[in-house]
Amino acid sequence: MAKKEMEVVRGIDLQRYMGRWYEIASFPSFFQPKSGTNTRATYTLKDDGTVNVLNETWVAGKRASIEGYAYKADPKSDEAKLKVKFYVPPFLPLIPVTGDYWVLLVGDNYQYSLVGEPRKKFLWILCRETHMDEETYNMLVQRAKDEGYDVSKLHKTPHPEPMPESNKTPDDAKGNKVGDWALKAFTAGLGVTAIYLTATFSANVYRGLARHNSQQKIDKEEDFKDQEP
Q: Model pTM?
């Protein structure tokens, strides 16, 4: 029997989908801080039709974040299948990491959303508020189960009060923990091969600079000898 194709939202109103969403529950992933609280995403529609994505979480009172953008996987389709792209590492954003963002269900009033991806390894339950009523939560969990997700892996995200109001905290200015999320996404998405290539590239650059400096030193010594009487 052929596998049932995952059903996604059609004709989503991106403008209504914009704004802040709070993570109510998700599948744990090694690129997201395990002890994160107050996890949220803020989406902003840009003039070119893409969506700016800001993911934030707080670990021990310190903010970790990653910023990227989303776009429709197929511009001609009315399905809510998006691609999300981040550039890493945060201190030198050169390498793109891309993931799938499929909206499986969204409330009529755009107050809750169920987000998954084709491999069914990641799942998010999102809400406009920090808390969701049990009836809505159970309905979304059942929908995910019907789509073939192992809902036993769902982990509820703590949202202790008071919620951080601003996008930044004093720790951001000091550079504490900021970018950890992006760095974990970097290592998770690219793996050992990319790390090896990055290290090799850095080593080659270092060796090239060393050779260049040595050659400059030799050239200077020869120029000095030529100038001797």
A: 0.73
